[in-house]
Amino acid sequence: MAELVKLEGVTVAFGGVKAIDNVNLTIEDNVGIVGIIGPNGAGKSTCLSVIAGARKPKTGSVEVLGHKITKADTAKITRLGVARTFQIPRPFTEMTVRENIMVAVTANHRLSNAEADARTDEILERLGIANQAELLTGALPLAVRKKIEVARGIATQPKLLLLDEVFEGLSDTEIQDMVQILRDLDKSGIRLVLVEHVLRALRQLASTLVVFEKGQMIATGPVDEVLNSDRVKDAYLGHRSTP
Ligand SMILES: Nc1ncnc2c1ncn2[C@@H]1O[C@H](COP(=O)(O)OP(=O)(O)O)[C@@H](O)[C@H]1O
Ligand SMILES: [Mg+2]
Fold first, then answer.
1. Do 167 and 111 sit in the same domain of this protein?
2. Do both 140 and 163 map to the same domain?
3. pLDDT confidence of 11, banded at 50, 70, 90?
4. 170: which of 46, 91, 174, 219 fits an S-S bond (Cβ 3.0–4.6 Å)?
5. Are residues 10 and 128 in the same domain?
6. Residue 213's domain is classified under what CATH number?
7. Position in ligand 1 atom list of the atom nearest CA 49
8. Within this chain, do residues 76 and 98 fall inside the same structural domain, yes or no?
């Protein structure tokens, strides 16, 4: 596979508003963990949805993991090995943690009950939430609900996992916990692309950054290079101090 992600001339519009406008973005494979940053409303989540194949562009083409997915349906894209998490966790609140993960494990795979059980247990362990497995998700703290999001993301055994603001609202300890989880996923060979505001987490994880501003991709490259560019400092904070 040459490229992890290749967007060419991608535009997504909501009514008259172009959420992303004629974006050309290539992410090579094996560039480490990728962070997508930028101000609110810049188009980051929309870009993630396009890569996940959930949002179809008005114009342009989308390739992920070496496959053209511009018009592919989401079930096919899941089978190709792409999964995503959402900024606002969306667990089924009337189900337990375990059931939430089980639903995702069995959604796209024909598994025996024993296989589904084993895979669910393994994911609970990996995320460090085996102790909470039998609790209903509705009343759980945000940090656990964020972990359930990630658990559901890896339930389909993706090659590429797209994460939308997985650190948002977490305490410093919870951030470090999640950093370690993502490091382990990275080590296991899952490619990670994170939309993220929490730069102190990204600095620990990401090798490559992509910067969006007002629907445009304005910079991409190694983390330090991107964060030190004047263009990015201007866009990100409106003034030239390090973001
Ligand atoms: N479902 C939607 N309906 C209408 N407008 C949307 C929708 N999703 C995003 N937008 C608009 O598109 C722009 C980019 O949004 P988004 O991709 O969510 O930005 P970010 O994730 O960088 O904050 C914003 O102006 C936002 O209001
Ligand atoms: Mg967003």
1. no
2. no
3. very high
4. 174
5. no
6. 3.40.50.300
7. 17
8. no
What pLDDT is stored for residue 231 in this prediction? 85
Same domain, 165 and 77: yes
Residue located via tokens 């409303």 = 41
Q: Whose CA is nearest to atom 5 of ligand 1?
A: 14
The answer to whether the beta carbons of residues 178 and 144 sit under 8 Å apart is: no
Distance 81 CA to ligand 1 centre (A): 25
- Total number of domains constituting the chain: 2
Quote the pTM value: 0.94
Query: Is 32 a pocket residue for ligand 1 (Cβ < 6 Å)?
Result: no
Tell me if 71 is assigned to some domain.
yes
Residue ranges with strand state E in the chain: 3-14, 17-28, 33-37, 59-64, 67-68, 82-84, 160-164, 191-195, 206-213, 216-222
Mutate to test the pocket of ligand 1, among 20, 37, 45, 86 (most ligand atoms within 8 A of CB): 45
State how far the Cα of 1 lies from the Cα of 137, in Å rounded to an integer.
38
Distance 31 CA to ligand 2 centre (A): 23
Are residues 32 and 77 located together in one domain of the fold? yes
Residue 94 or 206, more confident = 206
* Contact (CB, 8 A) for 32 and 223: no
The answer to whether residues 75 and 191 belong to one domain is yes
State the Cα–Cα distance between residues 95 and 19, nearest whole angstrom: 34
Residues belonging to the chain: 243
Structural domain of residue 144, as residue ranges? 89-156
Q: How far is the CA of 196 from the centre of ligand 2 (A)?
A: 9
**C-alpha–C-alpha distance, residues 175 and 54, integer Å:** 28
